[in-house]
Amino acid sequence: MGLALAYFIIAIYTIALLLIFFYSLAQLNLLINYLSYKQRNEEAPKFNLLDPREIPHVTIQLPIYNEKYVMERLLDNISQLEYPKSKLEIQVLDDSTDDSVQETEERIKVLQETGLDIQHIRRENREGYKAGALKEGLITAKGDFIAIFDADFLPDNDWLKKTVIYFKDEEIGVVQTRWGHINRDYSTLTKIQAFALDAHFTLEQVGRNSKGHFINFNGTAGIWRKECILDAGNWEGDTLTEDLDLSYRAQLKNWKFKYLEDVETPAELPVVISAARSQQFRWNKGGAENFRKTVLSVIASKNISFKTKFHGVMHLLNSSMFLCVFVVAVLSIPMLYIKNIYGHLGWIFEVTSFFIISTVILFICYWFTYRSIQGKTFDDFVDYIKLFFTFFSVALGFSLHNTVAVLEGHMGKRSEFVRTPKFNINNLTDSWKGNRYLAKKLSPNTILEFALMVYFLFGMYSAIPLNDFGLFPFHVMLFCGFGFVFYKSAFAKA
Fold first, then answer.
1. CA atoms 342, 343, 348, 353: torsion sign
2. Which of 340, 440, 493, 494 is exposed most, by the fewest CB atoms within 10 A?
3. What angle do CA 20, 489, 131 make, to 5 degrees?
């Protein structure tokens, strides 16, 4: 290996490590915000729903596409929401192309006979995908406030009473609630998904919102002020995360968002890795697309502080951290050999400490979010340690898949909005096998993930002849992470 190439590898490796370090510092700042906010009692103006004059008209939008397994559960749940029928409208925005359309239509007719104002809205095409469906429904929506639920969400009966009241403050454009997980303990895959989402819905959402930094509507389990949607330019389907896009456009127009950590909205997590893959790809590519679309507007805005701009940029770069992690992982083995070949460059390997510090920071941050939901005893902490390193390993295993998504997003490559298959999985006895919506083909990345598993096995072996075990734990996690993703992708199929 030539010295010039060694310096190039070191430079790329160092830049990626520093970006991860800055991201971890941003997370630490959000933790400080989160803990300080938890100690405050904050009063906010609220509608008095006991006064009929203050009860606002609400439209619930249910954007669906081929949701055969969960439609009955969804409609039954939404029809049980406690709210005056004269002030409630439900729009079933059905873009389905399978036989679920007829079943949905029949169920809606039954609910209409109970006096519920529920409409079955169909389009001739899926133009704009979910964003297009929401936009079309908005044209005829009667409500001043628009609640949105994806097909796998099951709000409690009093959900509207707990959320719509905060729109008494006319500056609030969105009220977002925390996601819960009805099948958290179904498998290792669901446990680590819940772990990551819990961190977002506690540390990140509260940490940003408590200091007036930009947050995002999470696509579901929240309510928009109709005026806010229209003022921000309405739904647009030019990114895969239309929720993040509209959120930033609204906040750049000075609309405030209200996040309610204490209001949990249960939902179902993907139980098969192909479903998790499609969801991860959409979220990460959409994040990169929104960075490309919005970051200059955030930086140029004269209405927000430098700190809000910093957190906004880091927020938009969230998915791009997978690219940095993947670069650090792949280059870690060449770096091991560079250190052995060029002894005089040994001092440069001090930068590796940035990754260790970043990991420790994230370990601390995620513990505080874990304890707020799962528990704070010593046994809980032991469970947390095991779950953290399992999550960390599997996140590393997803880094190739998510890096492809991020690169496509940054380069502007367009792709179809691929829905996440729903399973109606509530407990350990339920099975996902036979689900007609599951992807039948392996992801092309699966072969590369197998190759990377072997590559990091070589990294583990390299520690022996080089007598350098500094990166050995990292390579063990990479080997396990890529091995997990490869195995589940190749063999855990219906």
1. positive
2. 440
3. 70
Chain centroid offset of residue 161 CA: 26
pLDDT of residue 352: 76
Query: In this predicted structure, what is the pLDDT of residue 445?
Result: 86
Chain centre to alpha carbon of residue 480 = 23
Query: Coil, strand, or helix at residue 400?
Result: helix
First to last CA, the chain: 46
* DSSP, res 292: H
Local structure of 222: helix, strand or coil: strand
Enter the pTM of the model.
Answer: 0.92
94's enclosing H/E stretch is: strand 88-94
> Is residue 493 a contact partner of residue 449, using CB atoms and an 8 Å limit?
no
pLDDT along the chain (494 residues), means of 10: 86 93 95 85 86 96 93 96 97 93 95 96 91 96 98 97 97 97 93 96 95 96 98 96 97 97 95 90 96 97 94 95 96 91 75 86 95 88 96 96 96 80 59 56 85 98 92 95 94 61
* C-alpha dist (Å) from residue 234 to 134, 228, 250: 9, 8, 9
Q: How many CB atoms lie within 10 A of CB 111?
A: 17
Residue 95 pLDDT: 94
What are residue 372's phi and psi, to 5 degrees? -70, -20
Burial pattern 284-300, b for ≥16 Cβ within 10 A else e, equals: bbbbbbbbebbbeebee
CA nearest neighbour of 224 among 191, 175, 185: 175
CB 489 within 8 A of CB 274: yes
> CA separation (Å) from 117 to 63, 120, 265?
17, 10, 23
Residue 243 catalytic? yes
Catalytic residue selected from 94, 152, 198, 243:
243
Strand (E) positions, 44-148? 58-64, 88-94, 118-122, 145-148
Q: Give the β-pairing of 222-225 and 172-181.
A: antiparallel
Q: Give the model's pLDDT for residue 494.
A: 40
Q: How far apart are the C-alpha atoms of 488 and 445, rounded to whole Å?
A: 13
Cβ-based burial of 441 (10 A; exposed 0-12, middle 13-18, buried ≥19): exposed
SS3 264: strand
Question: Max CA-CA distance within the chain?
Answer: 81
Residues 6 or more apart whose CB falls under 8 angstroms from that of 155 comprise 77, 78, 81, 149, 221, 265, 266
Give the residues across from 225 on adjacent strands: 145
User: What are the phi and psi torsion angles at 180 (to 5°)?
Assistant: -105, 180
Residue 198 annotated in active site = no
Catalytic residue among 94, 95, 198, 245: 95
Do 173 and 250 touch, CB atoms closer than 8 A? yes
Measured CA to CA, the distance from residue 301 to residue 320 in angstroms comes to: 22
Handedness of CA 391, 396, 401, 406 (dihedral sign): positive
